[in-house]
Amino acid sequence: MQITPVILSGGGGTRLWPMSTPQKPKQFLALTEAQTMFELTVARVSDRVQFASPIIVANAAHHALVKEQLEAAGARDATILLEPCARNTAPAIAIAALAANNPEAVLLVMPSDHLIADVDAFHAAIQSALPLVSEGWLVTFGITPDQPETGYGYIRIGEALSGGVHKVARFVEKPDLETAKAMLAEGNHAWNGGIFLFRADAYCAALAQHAPGIAEAAKVAMDEAIREGNSISPAADAFAASPSDSIDYAVMEKADKVAVVPVSMGWSDIGSWDALYDIGTKDAAGNSILGDARMIDASGNLIRSDGIRINAAGVENMIIVASGNEILIVPRGKSQDVKKFSG
Fold first, then answer.
1. Please, what is the average pLDDT of the chain?
2. Beta strand residue intervals within the chain, DSSP E
3. Mean pLDDT, rounded, for 97-114
4. What's the mean pLDDT in 149-153?
5. Cis amide prior to 25 (ω within 30 degrees)
6. Helix (H, G, I), strand (E, B), or coil: what is residue 3?
7. Which domains are seen in the chain, by residue range?
8. Residue 32 carries which DSSP code?
9. Residue 33's pLDDT band (boundaries 50, 70, 90)?
10. CA-closest candidate to residue 246, choices 58, 89, 140
11. 343 confidence band (pLDDT: 50, 70, 90)
């Protein structure tokens, strides 16, 4: 059976301001390659032998952007689910599970704005999880940590089940630095990357048990949805009536048959300009440059421009981003301060 990709693309993307805005958030930007993050995500599941046509869950305001970039990615066969409002990941996945129109469909749920450098490792991890998925397990992918990161949730890896898949011992909230260091030293923890694999009926059953309000709202919203071509607009009032909750809180932390596949696949959620610097290609002076820029006696800088030329001399370890009428200048290591400007 083909796997049905579910690509979640409803995020607002304010952490990479000024390039990323609510009108055009980071998933629709070319940040690491010539293709956008959304297009790269679609490309990972383009093999129609292994993967069925994808289901895209997107903000209704981004309908034109989604169609344009699906065309660029050669995925005209995708189904586009248009959220009338944001209700977090649990309701978004619920309407996708219903849109699949097959209770036995295996759903691969992915954010649209993450980097996966080693796609082969990702596909191998998917294959290792399929036997347990067919038995009704809900599987998540645990990213092998390489530093004591405080910005991610963690998964404590439990007993081995089969083929490199383990039972989830527990989910861990974003830790402080000392706790993160201790978990890294202990060695049996992985980052929670927000990627999942399960059958549609298994997810719907778990949702009905642990978050019945979300399950019922999703059903009504899809029963009353407006369908036009390959686009589906769930009923706005019904969808808005759904509780807003993540899949982690609503289902994964409560369900019984939850497993994790630890995988090292060059993953990043590109959650800040600092993160983009870390993964970006750099010149001999350690500058990561994309766009029109001239550097003199400068090192360790992230420079991004989608228009005007940036000229910088004698600067070190800075983030300088120009987009439209906005310019951001902040020391590396302080890029989380961007949210103070992007509101």
1. 95
2. 3-9, 55-59, 79-83, 106-111, 115-116, 138-143, 154-162, 165-172, 189-199, 226-228, 231-233, 258-263, 267-268, 288-290, 293-296, 302-305, 310-313, 318-323, 326-331
3. 97
4. 90
5. no
6. strand
7. 3-268 (3.90.550.10), 281-340 (no CATH)
8. S
9. confident
10. 89
11. low
